[in-house]
Amino acid sequence: MYDDEKIKVYFVENKDEFAGEHKLSVSKVKTFDSCKAKFKFSYIEKLPKKEWDFHVFGTFLHDVLETFHKLLISEKANKAKDSWALFMKKCFHDSIEKFKEKLSVEQKKEAFSIIQTYLDLMKRDFENGILPDVIDAERDFYLIINEKVLLNGFIDRIQIDHDGVLHVADYKTTKDKKYLKDFFQLETYAYILFLSDPDLQKIRASFICLRHDISYITKEYSRKDVEHIGQKYLDYADSIDQEKLWRPQPQFLCKYCDFVENCSAGENFLVKKGMLDKAPKFGIGKW
Fold this sequence. Notes:
By secondary structure, this protein is an alpha+beta fold. It has helices at 26-34, 36-44, 53-74, 81-99, 105-127, 184-196, 223-226, 229-242, 264-272; strands at residues 2-3, 8-11, 22-24, 133-145, 149-160, 166-172, 202-209, 215-222.
């Protein structure tokens, strides 16, 4: 339990322990920021979503790395270099079985190359004495804030670096790093870990760019740096309550929106930009 004059927070085991209206996550509030119409389609009307190739690919790689690190933790094999390739082979093949109907041949080849680079980096870090100790993978959390918001999510990886600093990391499969300029996700995860351990004074947080030679985009946070995060989610809840218009925000990313066929503004934008062949269903400018 964390308690100050404005914010009261505590963890629960699952979302069913929360009776309030606002169940928020990083992805949910980012959707609200990027397009109010998309938020409505997704979380209020709950329209069906598409299965995009890039989502399948990202989910597959997350599955491989999650099971790999959980296996290393359970077998106490984080430092057993000779066993890594065997464990990774098992996890890769198990994930292939789960996703084989959805992955293309090209995706399988690219994923194999990424995983090989991942193992090579682990071995190099081990030989240089800087291999982190991964202590958890895909950790879930459910945090109640002021009895108004349930903040939930999953943290891809938590490790202790060679210098003793706790490090939280999220895998990214984006092809372009320019989309990784918003660090609210990492700030949220740092906030969660600070609440989980009152003795922590510093947290390192990174995006791990799997398609860019397993490179890191890293920030470091103190408690003070992220103490505003709880209030930020309360503010989002208020904004969602107050939203009435649910206006679309047409942009190039509409091309990858699950609901573009339901949104005349998004369709019209893509048609005008030459990114969509079919004519808009609802007529130019209507909503």
